[in-house]
Every structure is written in structure tokens, then in C-alpha cells.
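Subgroup meeting minutes
Present: P.N., E.W., G.H.
Scribe: E.W.

1. P.N. recapped why we're keeping a running log of single-chain structure predictions: easier to compare across weeks, and new members can see raw inputs and outputs side by side.
2. G.H. added today's entry (277 aa).
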Amino acid sequence: MQPVSEALIGEVHDLAVTIGTRAAEIARSRRAGGIEVAYSKSAIADIVTDADRETEQFVRHALAEARPDDGFLGEEFDAVPSASGLTWVVDPIDGTVNYLYGLDPCAVSIAVVEGDPTGTQWRAIAGVVVNIFSGRVYSAAVGRGAWADGDRLAVATTTSLPVTLVATGFQYAPEVRVRQARVLANLLGTVRDIRRFGAAAIDLCLLAEGKVDLFYEIGLKPWDFMAGALIAQEAGAIVRGRGGSTRPSGELLIAANSTLIDQLQPMIEGWVRAEDL
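Output recorded in log:
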């Protein structure tokens, strides 16, 4: 991968914030008018609404107009290959079940990635996560820190497991959820408590804010985590994949300050292996 200039990093960061904020406004307005499930994907709980598709189409068209040579990887439509080396990775509504029920949180998530985001040699250079209902804007650019509505973010300094608050989520397939629940049962005997907010992008932003101490999840897609992971990293979190890899993937994403991740990752991975996840 060729180095990306500081000017370009700033440009795509600002564009992500502008488009992400507008996309969240569209999704919020659409929800106020009432919505229905358009169809289910991998399981009955894995839903898509017309608002998901409309929001992604807005983002796709806005980016194609502003940066026609960039690629696009979104949740709802076919990918567009990149001619520039940059790809926009978009979840139009992360937390669709929350969105359906009118529950906070749910978010628009947009990451700008250098390299192939479906491969192993990619780097997120900018990202934005916009809470659809509150309008709170989280963003980061590589090497420039993470911010929320003008405030600099920093991860919590918690180091003791008995006072550690963990956020996590679950896959949609019922048989997989049962095994994930057994992993969680082990964890509950080790930490203060867990929270399940239903939107991985927001989980990672709450980690960046210091409102939870550790986040882990199995089975995420690139659009679920790439923006949030960069925001967490720029706030001081260590973000890893399975086996301590520095590159998170759908197999596992775990993020926390350096002390907590070193303590909890071996435990979590052991429980995950025991459940064949």
C-alpha cells in the first residue's frame, strides 16, 4: 500500500462526517414516518428495512459523485471495485433491530479503507459513526485521535477484572447464540457485568469514550466494525483479532486498554475454542 497524504486523510475524514451526518438525518426522518421489515437475510432476526437500502443508496451516490474512482463495500448492495486504492465501507444502519423498534442505539457507520477491506492487507484511515436518534457524531482519522461532537475521546484506564464492564453482541443463528451464551456465562463470573447494546459500531465508540471497558464479538462483517475499530484505536484502545492478530476480522474482534486485553483475551479465546466458535 502506498502512503496516503495527510491532506487526503483530512479530506476523506471530512467527507465521511458530512455524508454520514446527512445519512443519519435521512434514516431518522424515515423512521419517524414508520417502517416495516423488507426481508430477512441469514435468519429471521437478521432483518433489512427499506430505510437500510435507501440510506445506503444515498451514501453510495454521494460518494460516487465526490470520489468516483474509489471503491464501495456496503451491507445491502453489490461492491464496487476501487481504482484509487481507497474503498468506502458502509453500514447504512448498524443495529437494524433497534431501529425497527425505535430503540437507541443504532448508527450510520462509514470507514475509508486503504487496500482491499475483504482481504488481509487493509488499513482504515478515517471513519465516522453517527447515532441515528441522538445525532452524536463519533469520528477519527489515523494519527489524529478520536472525537465525539468536538470532545477528544480516551479509553478507560480500568485494570481490575472484577470492576470491568464488557460490551458484546451475538450472531443471528439461534444455535450459534446458545454457544455464545455459554462463553458469556464464563465471563460473567470474572467481570463486573456485561452490556448488550445491539450495534457493534456504537459498542466500539462507547469503548472509545470510556463508558465500557472491553468489547468483543464473533461473526462481525467489515462494515460492522471498521469505522468503530479505528475510533477505538485512535482513543487508545488495542484492537485485535483471533490469536492476538493486530487485524480484527469476522472470526473475532476484541478491544480494550492494553492491560485488560492481555488479561481477558486468552480467557475469552479459550472459552470460544471450547464452544467450537
